[in-house]
């Protein structure tokens, strides 16, 4: 009875055995991942508050590190102090804070602007070293980076403090202007022409052609001020000394015919203005005198002016006598 019951139970509740079928990996269909809603940012600085600014800072720091490594491999760094002082100066003119802020399309504080200019100055220093050493490829690469941050009106800004070069006319005359206080002087200078020796002159026929002609004597008439000789226009020796000081310093006393027109002020201001104009004319005729004249301040205008009178004072600083009662 039990045997029959077991046979019926096994036949009634039997289940088919499941077998796993092997599928090669190449035949398994691959389900692609769902695409993200936003693409990945181009730079990690995207997650900062000012990505454009930090991108520029990072690129400058990378350029400085690369340039420093190249200069060290060329044995140009570290540079001794005496060698660094002998480098030719390069005057950079960077973009203003407002221009950089407009380029970055964000507000640029003074601290961040100073950081940018500090990095640019360091890169410009490396450019000086590479250019002086003759490594043109490295210098041009640095130059391309520096030009991105230079002001557009760089040439005009650098030429703002420079004087216009005095050009001689077709007769070899120079025209300069000197000023002192309220006086002004316009000066025309021309070198004294040496007499030309004529081959058919009586001296050459008599065999006296080798004798050099005498130089003209130095007289006050070689300097005319308002068409008046110098000693008559300035009777005070101190005024005449201020006029002839540049000529004596250059060793050119009597070497030029000088005509001047002075206006305004007194004799002291006019003589100082005339001296400055003569010094500028000497530099125009002999550019080698520019450095010594600049160091001795002969070609520089004296900026001092008369101090104005104040209210309740007798003069600029003179006060009334104080009375107790």
Automatic annotation (TrEMBL):
Keywords: Ribonucleoprotein, Ribosomal protein. One of its GO terms (biological process) is translation. Gene3D superfamilies: 3.30.230.10. InterPro entries: Ribosomal_Su5_D2-typ_SF, Ribosomal_uS9, Ribosomal_uS9_CS, Ribsml_uS5_D2-typ_fold_subgr. It comes from the Eukaryota. The keyword Ribonucleoprotein applies. One of its GO terms (cellular component) is mitochondrial small ribosomal subunit. Coiled coil: none annotated. GO terms for molecular function: RNA binding; structural constituent of ribosome. Belongs to the universal ribosomal protein uS9 family. This is Uncharacterized protein.
């Amino acid at each position: 009875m039990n045997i029959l019951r077991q046979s019926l139970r096994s036949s009634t509740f039997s289940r088919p055995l499941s077998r796993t079928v092997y599928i090669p990996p190449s035949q398994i269909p691959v389900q692609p991942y769902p695409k993200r809603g936003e693409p990945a940012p181009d730079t990690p600085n995207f997650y900062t508050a000012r990505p454009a600014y930090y991108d520029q800072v990072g690129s400058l720091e990378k350029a400085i590190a690369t340039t420093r490594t190249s200069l060290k491999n060329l044995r140009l760094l570290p540079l001794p102090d005496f060698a660094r002082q002998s480098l030719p100066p390069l005057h950079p003119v960077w973009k203003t804070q407002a221009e950089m802020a407009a380029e970055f399309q964000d507000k640029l504080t003074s601290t961040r602007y100073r950081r940018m200019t500090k990095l640019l100055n360091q890169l410009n220093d490396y450019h000086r070293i590479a250019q002086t050493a003759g490594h043109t490829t490295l210098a041009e690469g640095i130059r391309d980076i520096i030009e991105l941050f230079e002001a557009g009106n760089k040439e005009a800004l650098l030429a703002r403090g420079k004087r216009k070069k005095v050009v001689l006319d077709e007769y070899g005359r120079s025209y300069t202007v000197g000023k002192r206080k309220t006086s002004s002087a316009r000066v025309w200078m021309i070198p004294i022409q040496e007499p030309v020796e004529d081959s058919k002159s009586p001296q050459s026929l008599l065999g006296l052609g080798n004798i050099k002609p005498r130089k003209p004597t130095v007289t006050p008439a070689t300097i005319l001020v308002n068409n008046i000789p110098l000693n008559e226009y300035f009777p005070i020796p101190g005024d005449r000394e201020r006029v002839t000081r540049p000529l004596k310093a250059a060793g050119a006393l009597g070497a030029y015919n000088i005509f001047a027109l002075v206006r305004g002020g007194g004799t002291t201001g006019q003589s100082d203005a005339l001296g400055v104009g003569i010094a500028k004319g000497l530099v125009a005729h002999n550019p080698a005198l520019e450095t010594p004249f600049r160091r001795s301040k002969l070609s520089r205008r004296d900026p001092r002016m008369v101090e104005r009178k104040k209210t309740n004072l007798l003069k600029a600083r003179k006060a009334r006598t104080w009375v107790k009662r």
